[in-house]
Amino acid sequence: MNWRKSTYSGGGEGNTCVEIAELRSRIAVRDSKAPARATLSFPAPSFTALIDHLKEHPWSEARLPG
Q1: How far is CA 25 from CA 3, 44, 52, in A?
Q2: Helical H runs in the chain?
Q3: What is the pLDDT of residues 25-52, one digit of tens each?
């Protein structure tokens, strides 16, 4: 797999980075700090919908319960 870091990762300690790999019909996602641990895999259309939603509703502006 060819992993690439998120374009939003920025500099610093690198402690907020995710990496993605494009597969045939899925997108794999992993934590760049722990690449040997669990990897998530999403159907490509679902991943695209997630990214589109996050662009419209950034988590930093979201109200978290509690």
Answers
A1: 15, 6, 18
A2: 44-56
A3: 999 999 888 888 999 999 999 999 988 9
> Which one, of 29, 3, 5, lies nearest residue 15 by Cα?
5
The model carries a pTM of: 0.70
- Residue-by-residue DSSP string for 1-66: ---EE-TT--STT-TT-EEEEE-SSEEEEEETT-TTS--EEEEHHHHHHHHHHHHHS-GGGSPPP-
> Is 52 exposed, middle or buried, given 0-12, 13-18 or 19+ CB atoms closer than 10 A?
exposed
DSSP state of 63: P
Q: At residue 45, what is the residue type?
A: P
What's the burial of 30, exposed, middle or buried (CB within 10 Å: 0-12/13-18/19+)?
Answer: buried
Residue at 21: amino acid letter: A
